[in-house]
Amino acid sequence: MKTYLECYPCFLKQALSAARRAGGTEEQQLSVIRRTMEILKKLDAGAIPPEIARHVHHAVREEISCPDPYREAKQQSTEQALVLLPELRRLIEESSDPMDTAIRLAIAGNIMDLGVMEDFGNLQNTIDRVLKQQFAIDHTAELRELLETADHLLYLGDNTGETVFDRALIERISIPVIYAVKGSPVLNDATELDAIEAGLDTITTILSNGSDVPGTLLNLCSEEFKDAFEKAPVIIAKGQGNYESLSDAGRKVFCMLQIKCPVIGIDIGAPKGSIVCYRSGNKSK
Amino acid sequence: MKTYLECYPCFLKQALSAARRAGGTEEQQLSVIRRTMEILKKLDAGAIPPEIARHVHHAVREEISCPDPYREAKQQSTEQALVLLPELRRLIEESSDPMDTAIRLAIAGNIMDLGVMEDFGNLQNTIDRVLKQQFAIDHTAELRELLETADHLLYLGDNTGETVFDRALIERISIPVIYAVKGSPVLNDATELDAIEAGLDTITTILSNGSDVPGTLLNLCSEEFKDAFEKAPVIIAKGQGNYESLSDAGRKVFCMLQIKCPVIGIDIGAPKGSIVCYRSGNKSK
């Protein structure tokens, strides 16, 4: 997805939020804002949002000497979601279509995004909404069909805490799953440590993508990850950052997300607040 | 009021919105964003928001060669409010405290602010809310007392359309009123033309402040206006821009506004969504 002009103010907002989470002084926060404006001024034509976000969050970590500004928030998110795990499992087990419910819950978990909002509100309300809500784009039938025949699944994680919702879905998937995480901290995206805290090491092979992009930019990922991406017969890509990176990555990629940003909504063709399971490279426009 | 770090992303957002209203191409919109970042980079320590907004909107008008990007929106706002004028008058006349109702309605009109939002929503809902809502800061008793003894009032207008709500209040004020407007277009702030279209020339003396600041920065105003400001025994200053400019201007100034911005809310000490009649220089913090 290209960078829209609406993304510019949003990057400044995100930079300020991250600088505060990192415990930056007022002066450091201002430096981060100035550095972000420099990054935005020097943008290559065609730079996509996760690429820019990577530079912005790098500037925050460097300016404030804080390797993982979201560490505490991430731990809280994981704990909060783990409390819900028995309930998520119960909802799936008691559903007339457990796989549909599991997919919906994995999408519900995508609300735990600290790049868009300071606070993701009441999780139970989001779960209730997403369980009933109609998909704005629904390629779940094609995804489910592929999951029947594929020999394994590559699952690209997104936010920490959401990882636990992913775990509830992965428990319903009968083929082996590789769960990809970020190579080092950026925003509240899950790293290997965060995924382990969510218990994903017990049911998947966790794979670092080797990069600190809040999304998946293949040219910045490790050879090992690129290889896994290429060989995967089917890929679930969670969240906005992965959609921004992989919206045209080909028909084995299924982007599962909540539309929390109006600009992504325009790009994908679904209103803000909607839920989407979008087969990549399938845009009608 | 000082410029908070939260104001930075907000200026970019406002610049983009204004560039679009001015009919700018995608390329011109990007130029406006870049120029805004330059303005923000070169900020003097102590620059206050209306001063920065002035430069931003100047850049928009220059980049896109559009002297009044908000002209059409302003005309629509005036027409929309004029339709409501008979109802505003009826509400005031039938009230048990007509002056209280008239003040509240003038504050309700402050919602017609296109600097904060793209669209100010349903006016009737705002009127209903503000008529019932408790003041977060209420210095109306002191204002009303001064209006009893003063020989005239200087009334600093804010948004176009809001002008009509001001007119309904001014009709209840028995002393002569000077209604101050912006010297040239900026945002949807009322100029002389806009005030005349709201019928304010029939009940007030309209006075240009000689500046294009979305607020009132005395050092940038005309001598005539500064003289009127100095001589006025009591001043009503409408809206956020005037609060940002005049929050410490002295006890004859009463800022009447809705808090539409969280940062102004923090500065004045009233939550977003609240209504305020604040006697300047009266901050407890």
Topology:
Two copies of one chain form a homodimer.
Chain A: H1 7-21, H2 26-41, H3 49-63, H4 71-93, H5 98-108, H6 123-132, E1 135-138, H7 140-149, E2 153-156, H8 162-170, E3 177-181, H9 192-197, E4 205-208, H10 223-231, E5 235-238, H11 239-246, E6 253-258, H12 262-268, E7 275-279
Parallel strand pairs in A: 1-7, 2-3, 2-5, 3-4, 5-6
Antiparallel strand pairs in A: 6-7
Helix pairs in contact in A: 1-2, 1-3, 2-3, 4-5, 4-8, 5-6, 5-8
Describe it:
The structure is a homodimer of 285-residue chains. With 285 residues, chain A is of the alpha/beta class. Chain A folds into 2 domains: 7-63; 72-279, 3-Layer(aba) Sandwich (Rossmann fold), CATH 3.40.50. The first copy, chain A, contains 12 helices and 7 strands. Chain A has helices spanning 7-21, 26-41, 49-63, 71-93, 98-108, 123-132, 140-149, 162-170, 192-197, 223-231, 239-246, 262-268, and strands spanning 135-138, 153-156, 177-181, 205-208, 235-238, 253-258, 275-279. Chain A has a 7-stranded mixed β-sheet with strand order 1-7-6-5-2-3-4, sandwiched between helices. In chain A, strand 5, helix 11 and strand 6 form a beta-alpha-beta unit. The longest helix of chain A is centred in the first third of the chain and has 23 residues, at 71-93. The radius of gyration of chain A is 18 Å and the shape is globular. Chain A binds chain B through residues 5-6, 8-10, 12-13, 16, 26, 29-30, 33-34, 37, 40-41, and chain B through 5-6, 8-10, 12-13, 16, 26, 29-30, 33-34, 37, 40-41.
